[in-house]
Amino acid sequence: MSGGIISKLEKMLITWTCLAGLLAACAAPPSPPAAVSSPLPTSTEAPPTTTAIPLPPTPTSTQQPLSGFFTIQMFNQAEGWATTVSTDNTSRLLRTGDGGQTWSDVTPAILPTGSLVEFFLSENSAWAFSYTDPARGLAHTVDAGKTWQMLPGLPIPADFVATAIAFQDEDNGWFKFASPGAGTSDIGFFTTRDGGSSWSQAMLTAPPGLFDLSLSAIPGTLHTCTMCRDVIYFDLARVMIVYGDLIAPGMPSNTLTLSISMDAGQTWKDLKLTPPASGVINENELPLPPVFFDRNDGLLPFGFVKYDAALNIGQTQLIVYATHDGGLTWESFANSLVQNVNVLKAQDLIDFVSPQTAFVPCGSDLCATNDGGRTWQTVKSNLNYSAESGTEYVQRMDFVDSNTGWAITTNGNDYNLWKTLDGGASWEKLSSTIVP
């Protein structure tokens, strides 16, 4: 290591040098003489011989190898968060300040041990709650996990589970709750204006004419078709329902449809998105969650799926739509189709860094855009992005700019962390450790 830290070997060399005679340079400075009332007498005798006493060895911190990475979210080239999950579904929250080389375990001890649901707002601020016991409380930190404050538990309706939580700043946020179901799910949201100290339900209404969405178990929720792969997006500025038709293989709708509300789900506007004039697979549509970078700018990925004669998914491709008015209008580009994207599994892998920069796995390679999806470039590297190959592959990735990114790979048993400084062209495996 650099920065003036002396290794054990250097300490041994210094100690042996001291024993060899360089006492004045190596010995600890003597204690100051006792005060006297008269000058010390002069003497011609040689000073007494002293023996150097070796200093005790400096204790070293025990850094343990770290593996089992599950998620990672970096906020700059040095600072960020990660989670690990053990075989018993116990989560750990980790924090790094050196780009992922070393990590500190900052799991909030005030929460029950087990699976956690977390949200990282910045390099210093985060929230977390227990997935199995959200009523126990919501933990919040503003000092990178050094200390945690316990907030009241989440007011989840009976027979529902909280699946996600998000904040746009320290005060304003929301959490999503859903009912488990076979092919369908009732989904709703609670919002907070005081950082999670109190919550109120967003009372959503279904878009006119879509009776199925109103068949909810409790008021204020939407009854969605999870088999169709419908997507519901929510933030404090808008609600979106993006419709999929994955359960009707061979019967393409030829239109990409969505409904958007700008008043918390009270009134709706229906939109039909036009795909590029050529190059699109004329089959079924699979939407993925949109990403908004501010109130106006956002990206919406849409997958296209083509089935073979046995109704197995064959050819796939992805298109990205862009909005600059908060989602009221969307546009795509003629060259924006990305081939061989596993749209059924790509949700955790697509990384939208900014309105201009995005990364998505395409086959065993990585595809990147730096112009908002107008064009894409294939990036070949030393990592594999296809889970079907049976070897180690990229499970998640997170870029902070067009060059710097991290990836978690797995072979089904081991989970490793990698870093790139050239936009994914080459990756270095990190020997990450956890520090006390």
Q: Count helical runs.
A: 2
The averaged pLDDT comes out at: 83
Structural class, from secondary structure content?
Answer: mainly beta
Give the % helix: under 10%
* Fraction in beta strands: 35-45%
Gyration radius from CA atoms, angstroms = 29 Å
- Spatial shape: globular
Biggest sheet character: 6 strands, mixed
Structure description:
The protein has 436 residues and is mainly beta. The chain has a domain at 61-152 and 384-436. It has helices at residues 8-20, 23-26, and strands at 64-65, 69-74, 80-85, 91-96, 102-105, 116-120, 126-130, 138-141, 149-151, 161-167, 173-178, 184-192, 200-202, 222-225, 231-234, 239-242, 256-261, 269-273, 284-287, 291-292, 298-307, 313-323, 338-339, 351-352, 358-362, 365-369, 377-379, 393-399, 405-410, 415-420, 428-429, 433-435. The strands form seven sheets. It has a six-stranded mixed β-sheet with strand order 1-32-5-4-3-2, with no helix packed on it. The longest helix is centred in the first third of the chain and has 13 residues, at 8-20. The chain is globular and about 60 Å long. Mean pLDDT is 83; it is low at 1-60.
